[in-house]
């Protein structure tokens, strides 16, 4: 089973592919899109849950999503048609680093996908290239709640401690790149737990429901390994912050 397929199954029962509750997603979107008359871009959109929610709530909004997962984009298109918002959504099967349109966007999102650009700083640079003057960015990034121990790093697949910083340093780095936070959300432990139970549970449920599928055993093993790495490793160590940003004067 490909990594993208595992991710699609694992995220199938959660509002977005990040540790944010339904209410947190709604509040951040409402703050980002304002009166709902502009254009929104999601870099690394996956199945485009952020864009679909925004379009359904704001009938004058237009949106564009970019991702390398063709199947996720197909699912996003189907969902948009079901919601009746497909005419206001453009989807691009492309590396987000190479994406470009001549007209800038009023809102640019990149939540939980900074790895696609090689980290936080290059993500912010990419966002800036697409953002209209006076526009806002919504960027979600991990950070260390506390110094990661070997168990936490192992639970994250052998992560490098330098991959993230603590929260004050993370925000300071954003500011140093020429951005001003105008709002933000720090995911709670409950949001993290809901996200991780959903991630592992969805994959384990799929394996139980498809016992004869050739990938069933792999899906069950991945779910068990992920659950062990979370509960016995990085739970309470890895945090997640979502920042609403504007370019600094």
TrEMBL record:
Q: Which CDD domains has this protein been placed in?
A: AdoMet_MTases
**Residue ranges of every copy of the Methyltransferase domain listed in the record:** 40-135
Q: Which GO terms describe its molecular function?
A: methyltransferase activity
Read off the Pfam families from this record: Methyltransf_25
Q: Please name the InterPro entries in this protein's record.
A: CFA/CMAS, Methyltransf_25, SAM-dependent_MTases_sf
Report keywords, A-Z: Methyltransferase, Transferase
Q: Which SUPFAM superfamilies match?
A: S-adenosyl-L-methionine-dependent methyltransferases
Q: Name one GO biological process term.
A: methylation
Q: What is this protein called?
A: Class I SAM-dependent methyltransferase
């Amino acid at each position: 089973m490909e990594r993208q397929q595992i991710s699609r199954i694992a995220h199938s029962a959660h509002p977005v592919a990040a540790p944010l509750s339904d209410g947190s997603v709604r509040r951040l979107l409402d703050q980002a899109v304002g009166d709902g008359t502009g254009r929104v871009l999601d870099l690394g959109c996956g199945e485009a849950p952020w864009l679909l929610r925004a379009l359904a709530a704001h009938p004058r909004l237009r949106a564009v999503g970019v991702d390398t997962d063709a199947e996720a984009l197909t699912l996003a298109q189907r969902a948009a048609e079901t919601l009746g918002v497909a005419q206001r959504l453009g989807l691009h099967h492309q590396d987000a680093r190479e994406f470009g349109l001549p007209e800038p966007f009023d809102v640019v999102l990149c939540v939980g996908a900074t790895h696609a650009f090689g980290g936080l700083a290059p993500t912010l640079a990419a966002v800036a290239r697409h953002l209209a003057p006076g526009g806002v960015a919504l960027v979600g990034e991990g950070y260390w709640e506390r110094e990661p121990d070997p168990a936490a790093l192992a639970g994250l697949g052998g992560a490098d401690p330098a991959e993230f910083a603590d929260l004050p340093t993370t925000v300071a780095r954003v500011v140093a790149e020429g951005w001003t936070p105008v709002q933000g959300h720090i995911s709670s432990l409950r949001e993290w737990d809901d996200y991780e139970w959903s991630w592992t549970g969805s994959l384990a449920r799929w394996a139980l429901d498809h016992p004869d599928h050739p990938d069933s055993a792999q899906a069950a093993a991945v779910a068990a390994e992920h659950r062990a790495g979370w509960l016995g490793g990085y739970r309470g160590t890895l945090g997640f912050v979502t920042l609403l940003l504007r370019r600094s004067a």
